[in-house]
């Protein structure tokens, strides 16, 4: 059983900036506009490919004007997004045109990467992947399908020591260690997208959550049966897990790894078409049934986007 990456959720400090950056600059599709089910005063935006398929999704809790986070132990150091290798030049050009903060090309694990940051300082990188040019991505407003970001390639976790988190990855999530580059160990889920890199940093300041920091990483479960099997295995190993949550678009459980990073297991279904047609994904504010009675209150408290149209 392998469980590659389903989605990654981060914190944003501004609605308009996030809509513009991911929807326009990065050319991702806003596939769902909802709220944080536990804190409905915050938007929860999902960006992905055409239908928001598992592995393509980055999501954001939008906390307007929240303080920036601080990188430290127990957090994601950076998120790599897959793009065709020959598209990296297109992207560097686009970053310059749009004033995106980026660093020169680097090589990691033999791959060419273009590190950059979102407007909140979230550390991202485009990773040039061979072979992607043969499958078209989502056609953004002014990002041609051939250059499109395809989805999450890898995440690097900054933890004190790698062993206990590596155990969870290999014993439960079907990952195996494939390489070491400097201080970073690379783990890959066989047959699925999503690479986890573990960077053991020993004693270092703990992370502080805020704008520009990753909240959690979700791994795929095929269905509810697989989610429950995995939950039982986690409990049997003494890992504390949350109750099963209904996130409308998937069911999930959460647990904190020994390294301090929040992991989620999320089912592939039912997906984002469950409450919106493919053509209208991301158009309307969607609320779970339990919050519908408070829709008026929730809508009037949420910040309004400068553009109400999906980007
Ligand atoms: Zn999640």
Describe the protein.
This protein has 311 residues and is α+β, with helices and mostly antiparallel strands. The protein has a single domain, classed as Roll (2,3-Dihydroxybiphenyl 1,2-Dioxygenase, domain 1). The protein is built from 5 helices and 16 strands. The protein has helices at residues 15-25, 88-97, 163-172, 224-236, 295-301; strands at residues 5-12, 29-36, 39-48, 57-62, 75-84, 106-108, 111-117, 123-129, 151-159, 175-181, 184-189, 195-200, 214-221, 245-246, 250-256, 262-270. An 8-stranded mixed beta sheet has the order 2-3-4-1-13-16-15-14. Strand 3 and strand 4 form a beta hairpin. The chain is globular, with a radius of gyration of 18 Å. The model has no long low-confidence stretch (mean pLDDT 94). The chain binds zinc ion (ZN). Zinc ion is lined by residues 7, 9, 216, 218, 264.
Question: Strands, helices and their partners?
Answer:
Elements: E1 5-12, H1 15-25, E2 29-36, E3 39-48, E4 57-62, E5 75-84, H2 88-97, E6 106-108, E7 111-117, E8 123-129, E9 151-159, H3 163-172, E10 175-181, E11 184-189, E12 195-200, E13 214-221, H4 224-236, E14 245-246, E15 250-256, E16 262-270, H5 295-301
Parallel strand pairs: 1-4, 5-8, 9-12, 13-16
Antiparallel strand pairs: 1-13, 2-3, 3-4, 5-9, 6-7, 7-8, 10-11, 11-12, 14-15, 15-16
The structure holds zinc ion.
Residues 7, 9, 216, 218, 264 line the site of zinc ion.
């Amino acid at each position: 059983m392998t469980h590659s990456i389903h989605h990654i959720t981060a914190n944003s400090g501004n609605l308009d900036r996030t809509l513009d950056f991911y929807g326009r600059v990065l050319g991702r599709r806003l596939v769902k506009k909802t709220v944080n089910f536990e804190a409905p005063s915050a938007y929860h935006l999902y960006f992905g490919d055409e239908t928001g398929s598992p592995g393509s999704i980055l999501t954001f809790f939008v906390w307007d004007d929240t303080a920036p986070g601080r990188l430290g132990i127990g957090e994601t150091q950076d998120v790599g997004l897959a793009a065709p290798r020959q598209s990296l030049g297109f992207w560097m050009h686009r970053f310059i045109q749009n004033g995106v903060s980026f660093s020169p090309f680097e090589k990691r694990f033999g791959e060419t990467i273009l590190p950059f940051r979102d407007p909140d300082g979230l550390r991202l990188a485009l990773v040039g992947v061979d072979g992607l040019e043969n499958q078209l991505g989502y056609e953004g407003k002014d990002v041609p399908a051939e250059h499109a970001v395809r989805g999450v390639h890898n995440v690097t976790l900054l933890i004190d020591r790698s062993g206990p988190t590596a155990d969870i990855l290999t014993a439960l999530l079907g990952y195996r260690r494939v390489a070491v580059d400097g201080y970073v160990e690379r783990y890959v889920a066989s047959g699925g997208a999503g690479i986890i890199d573990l960077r053991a940093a020993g004693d270092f300041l703990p992370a502080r959550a805020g704008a520009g920091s990753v909240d959690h990483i979700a791994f795929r479960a095929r269905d509810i049966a697989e989610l429950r099997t995995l939950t039982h295995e986690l409990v049997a190993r003494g890992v504390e897990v949350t109750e099963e949550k209904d996130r409308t678009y998937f069911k999930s459980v959460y647990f904190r790894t020994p390294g301090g990073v929040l992991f989620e297991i999320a089912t592939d279904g039912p997906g984002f078409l469950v409450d919106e047609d493919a053509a209208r994904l991301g158009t309307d504010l969607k609320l779970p049934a339990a919050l519908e009675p408070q829709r008026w209150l929730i809508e009037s408290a949420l910040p309004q986007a400068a553009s109400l149209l999906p980007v």
